[in-house]
Amino acid sequence: MLRAAGYGYRIALTSRRTVMCVQLRTRNMHTGAGNVHKVLVANRGEIAVRIMRASTELGLKTAGIYSHEDRFTQHRYKADESYLVGEGKSPVGAYLDIPSIIDVALKCGADAIHPGYGFLSEKTEFAEACRTNGIAFVGPTAENLNLFGDKTAARELALKCQVPVVQGTPGPIDNLDDALKFINSGVGYPVIIKASFGGGGRGMRVVNSEKELAENFVRATSEALSAFGDGTVFIERYVKNPRHIEVQVIGDGTGNVVHLFTRDCSVQRRHQKVLETAPACHLPEATLHQLYEDSLNMCREVQYKNAGTVEFLVDQQGNHFFIEINPRIQVEHTVTEQITGIDLVQSQIRVAGGATLPELGLTQDKISVKGHAMQCRVTTENPAKDFQPDFGVIEAFRSPTGMGIRLDDGPGFVGANITPHYDSLLVKVTAHAMRRTDCAVKLRRALEELRVRGVKTNKRFLINVLQQPDFLEGIVDTNFIAANPQLLDIDRSSNRGQKLLRYIAEVIVNGPDMDLGADLRFPPAKVDPPVPLIAPSPKQPGERKSLRQIYVEQGPKAFARAVRAEKKTLITDTTWRDAHQSLLATRARTYDLKKIADATKVTLKDAYSLEMWGGATFDVAMRFLREDPWDRLISLREAVPDIPFQMLLRGANAVGYTSYPDNVVYKFCELAQRSGMDVFRVFDSLNYIENMRLGIDAVGQAGGIIEASVCYTGDVADPNRGLYNMDYYLDFARQLNELGIHVLNIKDMAGLLKPQAATML
Asked: If you average pLDDT over every residue of the chain, what do you get?
């Protein structure tokens, strides 16, 4: 356990090659969540980070889950603890693995699970599994989910509460004949097909005529089955160009329900929300009042618990029609939080912990609207290619700041690998101001400041929307984007800075470009650095053999005996290793190293070793220098035959940063030894002996010299420093010795080893 300024850290390893848990204990904070003390977040990306931040502010411990594909994403490291789930499952399937998630929650001591949105957030089975295992589900009851997850059942509730609905099928349907029967009963076209379970625009198709029905029905049912595990749909009369208005509600399960006013989600593309605002503008007071009353009446009828969103269509005449109730937190909840000042996620957790709305101060008379808020979903989609998702590594990421700007970030950071496995949402940018136009100006300024390089984004498209006059006035409907095709006229980002840097690097490494006028018949002036002439000493009669000769002729044990018998200090020279690191300034070609080989073999003939090969060699040689690292090893071995060569071996990770199959590690060590490698410095930064064991065994089988490293931390000279004391290191050294190593190395990575401690060791 390392301690610093009141914080504690614990790293636990539960398998040979997988770091399963990273735990951080923060300072004690005020706990305001009743019976909840630790929250497991069963989601990923920005919403997982949002929930973790809210939980931390409540003084709660947090646990996260991640798939194998998400092992380097931000949400894993925002949690106090994080756990791999769904091993062997698909990237999405990992987050749908209910038994695995429940098992993690029980083992880590979580007393609540927050599902976020998407994935399992609307799965009745998940809520029931939580209840069965005594875990609070931060969301509606299983009964609420069962009702509102079925759009036809929710529709029946609306009719019972005398809430207007669009004419639709009485229940879910799964065949084309029933669809035709309903439409031909007098409903007519156009109609809209919707997935019975789920949302987010998936499984949704508008059909304008009978000839379009069959194809769209098949596509909608197939998409619904793929996205939600249920291919049934229902069909409604299509309301042309309505506004999409939401009412945010929250209940405590005792009959107390309040609304947090409206959101306008009319700016949509293919039924997917793009930009949301709050509150909705230009709605008659009578319509607003009825929206609130209908929302509250439906939720009170079923004793609704936790946060939810009641969604409506409002036509051009101000008539409203119930669509559905989303029984979860919404992506766009941020705009409601900004105009009301109420933290919806914290409220969710507190209600799940047993609090009632009056206890939280959430009564209707105390909730008011202040100003306007807008949220943009910045996605890794390319508007120039019909919003095709883009993938790759983020090379640059600069976040906007300033008064009235809020960021909800997830996978967006330099070095992040954007994969095709998940939703393309990169970051949510929310602005708040007292006037709608001022809010749009703030949001546009923030988007202009946002810089993302390496992947395409929809940023320029969003800026176009924010400048459109009708949008600024709040005159929008669900046909807004289709009616304004100029919004898709995207100015390409110039990316001048990175282009210039790439050009400079190209010229430095490969010389000037002939296409730009460079005359390569006249190369730059050649400057040869002065190299001292170092002649080898004449061989003396009876001169002892070099350490490498002893190793080659007598084996690694004889090498170790010779080292122990040496009275003077032996050195390892790392010049050739440090001359092929990943920095541009230190990328040395094999050609350059061979130039100093003669001087090296003379001046360092009595050295313990030359460390000159490893992971950085492979990275630089193959990725930048276009060289074969194996050829480098062989040619340098020929140039310097009598000094032991040394390399770093990361146990089961070999020369990489991921675990390789055992046979790969064995074969690698065999080929390395045969090509001229002698000393294999095997290490694990956590002193995890199971990770080192494979490397040690592989080097031993190859006949190499096994130099095992003990990574040092703490202070063995101080008996009160806890875990990393003399007994710890002696015990670890004994374990390594039992594995058959030849040399023991103390690796002081952090520069903590004091002279006194070194002497004691």
From this structure: 88
